Amino acid sequence: MSLTHRSLFPLVPQADPAQEARQLHTEGGLVPVRLPGDVAAWAAVDHTTAQLVLGHPDLTKDAAYWPDLASGRVPDHWELIAVIRGAGMLHAGGDDHRRLRKLASSAFTRAPIAALEGRITEIAGQLLDDLAAADPREPVDLRDRFAYRLPVRVICEVLGVPDTAVSGLRDAFERLVTPQEDGAEDIRVAQAEIHRSLTALIATKRAAPGDDLTSALIQARDDGDRLSEEELVETLFLILIAGHETTLNLISSAVHALLEHPEKLAHVREAARGGSGGGTCPYAHGGGRGVRTDAGADDGSADTDAEADDTGVKADDTGVKADDMDTGMDTDIADPDDGIWTALVDETLRFSSPVRHALMRYAVEDVDIAGVRVARGEPVLAGLFAAGRDPGRHTEPDVFDPARPTRRDHLAFGHGAHYCLGARLARLEARIALAALFTRYPDLEAAGTPERLASISVQGVRALPVRLNAGR
Ligand code: HEM
């Protein structure tokens, strides 16, 4: 049955994603939805179906397969741009994707990320010192002052670019991720501004290379002619934006969830004061059935992708090594701090997926998914937030409980060939950020009700006003 002949569930950026997820779950695994701009699509909303969609061999991220886009029937709508068009490897398929990902992936494997731990801890400490200088009677926006600044500094250091590469473009980045209702033109202006800055930055790095990822990417292009100038800009752009917009929402959503769950906050305060912060805390039991040691399917149902013949965990023709693609879960289990902070990060990823819907896929052939026929060319979204709230997967999914055994059973970093390249870095940053924050300010409390971000692609709060209550 054609998508256009079904009644469509409207996905509304301003809607409460938890409420939306509850309603979607009553409609089935693959639900016909209407996106902003009045575009019809499918959304996979339970865990199994979302995982299947993310790795399905008959779904591609190449928008050329979407006839409505090619024929101009899709409106140039601001919200749609976020899930349809994008940069570099995230929207590439097949060999292009493998090549682009391979070039960037060496910086995100276990050893280089582990080596960043000390530096991330230092940056977190500096940012928390800066907060101490604020008037203690005034609320502080923790999202802006801490959750945002930490990943920005880290990713800029990894790329070897000045902080201003992001902070100077902050408005432009924010307009891209959560644009206002003033249309697609706004996004194009933001994109052009970012591209201009990155082109200038590449020229500077080319003249004076350093020991950093930007120089390595330039080198890879110049040596083997593998990255075009545009691909280079797109790759930098993707790593910069993915490197901070999502992690900032992970950190702020973790704090927000705790502030809304006083009994969990009490556990965290106790851990921060030395009560149960190490491996002996009540949460340190390994995380249940979601614990995986690779990025592949844990049920064998989704072990292929449109762009890869395998899960991406083998070092074969995908060009993607197991270490590039794994979830980082094994690292965390071996981590002496497999305690409250790691549990908190995992449960936040499940409870409050920073990516609300993963980017669009398109059917390359007619395909049956969750008992539904998706016709060739039809677009399909994976609802990562809804998957985390799947009642078939998690008991009382709307309860935030870092002790739940299924807390690692989420798709917040995607699945398959496009599995998040920065997952290990994001997890490390969030764990360090939360431990440092609550150790320093265990008595911090909410100072107002945060407003939700209105977006179908990202999920979190616009601001997180808190009182730090230092030295209470
Ligand atoms: C891809 C989530 C942090 C770099 C993805 C995808 C998701 C995701 C869901 C797959 C999208 C899809 O299949 O449509 C997250 C979350 C993060 C985070 C929740 C933080 C909490 C990061 C960081 C970096 C990063 C810190 C880099 C420094 C990337 C890249 C891709 C990606 C390069 C594209 C991979 C590919 O297409 O092969 N991320 N991400 N992400 N992420 Fe992340």
UniProtKB/TrEMBL annotation:
Question: Residue spans with biased composition (Basic and acidic residues)?
Answer: 311-324
Question: Matching Pfam families, A to Z?
Answer: p450 (PF00067)
Biased composition (Acidic residues) is annotated at 296-310
Listed GO MF terms: heme binding; iron ion binding; monooxygenase activity; oxidoreductase activity, acting on paired donors, with incorporation or reduction of molecular oxygen
Tell me the segments the record calls region Disordered.
284-333
| CDD domains, A to Z | CYP107-like
Does Zinc show up as a keyword for this record? Answer: no
Q: Which UniProt keywords apply?
A: Heme, Iron, Metal-binding, Monooxygenase, Oxidoreductase
Which family does the entry's similarity section mention? Belongs to the cytochrome P450 family.
This protein's name: Cytochrome P450
- Species whose genome carries this gene: Streptomyces paromomycinus
